[in-house]
Specification:
elongated; 235 residues; alpha/beta; 9 helices; five-stranded mixed beta sheet; homodimer
Amino acid sequence: VSVAIVGAGPGDPKLVTVRALELIRECEVLVYDRLVAQELVAEAAHAACISRDGMTQDEINELLVRYGRRGRRVVRLKGGDPFVFGRGAEEIEALVAAGIAYEVVPGLSTFTALPGLAGIPLTHREIAGRVTVVTGTNADGSDLDWEHLGATPGTLVVFMGLARLEEIADNLMLAGRRADEGAAVVSRLSWPDAEVRTATLETIGAAARGMRGPAVVVVGDVALHANRLFSLAAA
Amino acid sequence: VSVAIVGAGPGDPKLVTVRALELIRECEVLVYDRLVAQELVAEAAHAACISRDGMTQDEINELLVRYGRRGRRVVRLKGGDPFVFGRGAEEIEALVAAGIAYEVVPGLSTFTALPGLAGIPLTHREIAGRVTVVTGTNADGSDLDWEHLGATPGTLVVFMGLARLEEIADNLMLAGRRADEGAAVVSRLSWPDAEVRTATLETIGAAARGMRGPAVVVVGDVALHANRLFSLAAA
């Protein structure tokens, strides 16, 4: 296998998998995202390290194919998981089209880390038995199906929703979700400057002002419930 | 911190996080699930290793509290992620009630690993912009909201759905999902005997006969689309 598509996890370099670290240490070329921890990039001691900052997706694909063709051990290190609203599939399609062998190493998604690190259980026996995950910025520019999301029971997780938070909250309330329903914004999960703010759907827009990305928005009463455990743990 | 609630990931011992492995190697007491890889249990070289097989959740909670009170370094190692339909929250509630300091280390959920390891992208620009996650066996015994799930667009992931697969498929079709919609069952993801079978919603019940758990059911045309990449990768 020449090219490995590897998830770096949410941020904390110790939340990378053992297999990912092994591949990073052995690779000859590392192509990494801006949000990947510097400690992980530093582990690629023998590699040419290339930041993908400023590259288009096509340029990244070309880079992977070019080094893959030469049989170099390439690691494409992506923030979070390569496929949870990442674009890992496009990179794989390019490799497959070029006939290059690849390996995938999944990473911890922010989605998965929310309960343990932010104290927000996405499901709860008494509150929510169902989780819906969407992205706040559709790749094709189309809007979310607010009417259906408003009527969907359980917890709603919105990736990349911070920039449009007030619009998202307004649309959900217009579509029938309660104004006093719990909501939370979790920014920079697992980083030293991680932050969790909880409020109601009506007040979350104001509460989250000034927060920095990457951030995930959680809508649902689990946000209120869980905060109790998180506060206790942090105390 | 005395007690760590740690996710072991989907099965492959190399898909555990660096932090998890560190804690396993240092711990004095390891309480582990049946589905955790033996290689990981073996890493706890200096620990008393206790299988939770046959214990009730209350008994596990008591065990964690008992060793935690004595200040022992305890790792509670759980399959997948402790909180994605796991019962990590109950263990934390018991620790909090007893005033014992704890740490959480998230694990790779099968949910997150599906795209990379089974070749099923849960979202896709042209097919599905939304993922719904439910468990096939509700803790409180109540049934799923079939009518709403049937009308929900995008990909549906059902944890622990294999045992009730035909019932799940029938109910979704009755609720309006297409009989020729894609469906897949992924069993023992990341283990050497992992298996992915794809079919349509109408035929998945027959196609999945004989498969062993743990398994996840995916309903949506992403199942059909993605199989192409997976086959190519495996070839």
